[in-house]
Design brief:
homodimer; TIM Barrel; eight-stranded parallel barrel; two-stranded antiparallel ribbon; globular
């Protein structure tokens, strides 16, 4: 069987482009309208995509004056989408810095039960002092501390998911024995960040664990991904950089004794699709015209730890920027943006235009064939196991991808014509994890 | 308009009776099967009940060897039920001791958005050292401390729900202004237990706040209910006690300046329904035969802080029991059980039989007319604004209630024939709370 692409639709409000809500077609209240997301989930499922994904942070992100900023809590949203779909995988971000492992492990196990094995967890440590200040802290914990806590969090969560053996429930009505109590066990975790007795209060879920996803590309992030992640979402601007990242992460996984094929790497792309090159460019230009540059400049300045007045819209980035080490959140994204601006000699205004669609993910306007060509090129040259599709405008961008790009990929034998499994892990060709509680008995 | 009853279905696994899973009709895997609960929600909605409710604790409760112990996380479960229903209210328990207010406020606001205004939160402080040990603690915090934290938790949650004005979203595409930023405000809460900056990252939900429900009947619990609760679930064994409780709680609410009618009081009842008295008694006896007395004795001993050997199945409760003050969780339930055993001179075995169905809630076997008579009597004599219906066996007990008891209540003019509102608050005749952020501007 030839190697197949994996396609995830990364969904956000009415599109990834920050100005998408201003288009005539967009419902500006869609961010908190479950019907909007149910429609998107059905479109993605019609395209036989592997999964859909929602990013999140426990803070109001961005300026609510300028774009839709609030959103539904993603485990709630996934559950609402599970009810109206049958096959598509359902992935959401949740923070290890601002949750308790007992609660979060149970919530993902519950989504996995309710969806019949379609849950995935994008594990994030959550950058930003503003999020920290919603949880009793004055500032964000240090990057390295956040990752150390994240590793212990995942350890606790997996122990909890293993705290019921797969065959624990006997349901012997005659004898009055519901479960084999020896197969439902305390975990008695004692660590630096957490003490958790367990067991979990829900049986092991269809997938054993939700699919474990990760999206950090800093040194800490890569090492974390190599250790735990089964799918990695990443922002890569050039084929060369994507190949370097791909090789590096697979090597790190192998060095930790994992099968490199058990870590699927999905760079993000923001395709702006038109039937002709001209049409695609026109849509792209229309979106760029709708960006409010002063607002975008403020956001960029914040990312760079600068005052907005230090940025000149029609000049280049200042020469004297902080190093990645001085940035406490979204480290690798920071470097990617600086590199992009310098490599292409962009003015601040031009950089804002390039970031407007995908915040550092690769944006390009083109025809369905051009999009399919790029996907095939990256997939075939050691840069990707699949793609994180980030439509600039929703639902229309997802419809265009599913109706126009997917059929080309299918014709070329790169993508499935039908679902062959029922769980998210099966879509990604990943095994159901063995229960370590059961192994430890041997 | 005559005063109408409110009916909530308190749903648990395959029934409140601890042995219900052993009946031939019961699916012993139903506790984590969303289809089971979707069926129950549809039955309750067919009966035009106000709401359904799921209790919860972040710990594995009870002996998984003896009865279905695990369950789905209730905000996930409510969301899955919202997707297949249109009118019925959806209430779940969540703990103020083991959640962060930012996360929980957002989750309930999200459920309220997704359900179109049907979410309710049963606010609990969570008793038990076993739950504490899933969250880094050695023992449960003191009863009074838990209630103090709960009060601050609700204060933070309501501030967050008010952090977006109802008219904050302008969606002005032309001007590029999504929300009026002055109407999305930080809360900057600084308290003993929490520091939370806000604003919440989701707009104000259809109901403003989810319906606030409370179920503790201790001194601390009553005072908390009088201050915050809009519906109160309570266990009352006799009409006299129920009247005392009802009067006390309404007076406390009035003393705090609230409209006593804004606090709906719903005692629990566990009806075991048969077409004849004989049939009802036969079902009751069958359930009692299926109880495992040694297991139930262990549970009772735990509640009493005793060794199981201190309890003689065929003797009375020991004379020398702890006082309510010495009990750190479920205080008023403890006293209710001791009083019940002493008032009726029950042996431990008889007491176990009486508790098997409702854990202290009023259980009785009877015909539909007898059940309706009791409901009418309590409703008409200052003991209840409605009832928390706790079927001993599910789905059959709920079907019997909806098909046989509800029509009698409807004929007597006590209960609605159709839903007249769309939100949970409308079903209970309760107002949508004003936004205090908006008030504070005046």
């Amino acid at each position: 069987m030839s190697r197949k692409l994996h396609l995830n639709a990364f969904l956000m409000s009415v599109g990834h482009h920050e100005a998408s809500w201003r288009l005539p077609e967009s419902d500006p209240h869609a961010s908190w309208n479950v019907k909007h997301f149910q429609e998107l989930a059905r479109i993605a499922e019609r395209g036989k995509l592997d999964s859909i994904f929602f990013a999140d942070s426990p803070v109001l992100q961005g300026d609510p004056g300028r774009r839709p900023a609030g959103k539904l809590e993603p485990t709630v949203l996934l559950t609402a989408l599970a009810a109206v779909t049958e096959h598509i995988g359902l992935i959401a971000t949740a923070s290890t810095s601002y949750n308790e492992p007992y609660n979060l492990a149970r919530r993902f196990a519950s989504v996995d039960h309710v969806s019949g094995g379609r849950a995935g967890w994008n594990i994030v440590t959550t950058a930003g002092a503003d999020a920290a200040r919603n949880f009793g802290l004055d500032d964000v914990p240090l990057h390295a501390d956040r990752y150390e806590r994240a590793a212990e969090f995942v350890e606790v969560a997996t122990k909890l998911w293993d705290s019921w053996a797969d065959d624990a429930v006997l349901a012997d009505k005659e004898a009055g024995v519901h479960a084999d109590a020896a197969k439902v066990r305390a975990i008695n975790h004692r660590g630096r960040y957490f003490r958790v007795d367990g067991p979990l209060n829900v049986p092991r879920s269809p997938q054993g664990y939700p699919l474990l996803v990760q999206a950090g590309s800093s040194e800490d992030g890569r090492q974390f991904a190599a250790r735990f992640a089964e799918a990695v979402f990443t922002a890569q601007q050039t084929l060369g950089e994507a190949q370097d990242f791909y090789r590096d992460l697979k090597q790190r996984a192998a060095a930790l004794g994992r099968d490199p094929d058990g870590v699927k790497i999905l760079p993000g792309i923001v395709p702006v699709i038109g039937d002709t090159v001209g049409e695609a460019r026109e849509l792209d230009a229309e979106l760029e015209r709708l960006i409010s540059p002063e607002y975008a400049k403020r956001q960029l300045a914040e990312r760079f730890n600068l005052d907005p007045d230090d940025l000149d819209l029609d000049g280049p980035l200042p020469a004297d920027l902080p190093t990645e080490d001085e940035i406490e959140g979204a480290k690798s994204r920071y470097t990617l943006i600086v590199d992009l601006a310098r490599r292409e000699n962009l003015t601040v205004r031009q950089l804002i235009g390039r970031l407007g669609g995908g915040r550092g993910h690769r944006t390009f306007a083109g025809t369905p064939v051009q999009v399919a060509d790029t996907i095939e090129e990256w997939f075939g040259s050691g840069a990707a196991d699949g793609f994180n599709i980030m439509p600039a405008v929703l639902p229309s961008g997802l419809v265009a991808f599913v109706e126009k790009v997917v059929p080309i990929l299918r014709e070329r034998g790169l993508f499935r014509a039908e679902y062959t499994g029922t769980t998210l892990r099966e879509h990604y060709g990943l095994p159901r994890p063995a229960n370590r509680l059961e192994l430890s008995k041997v």
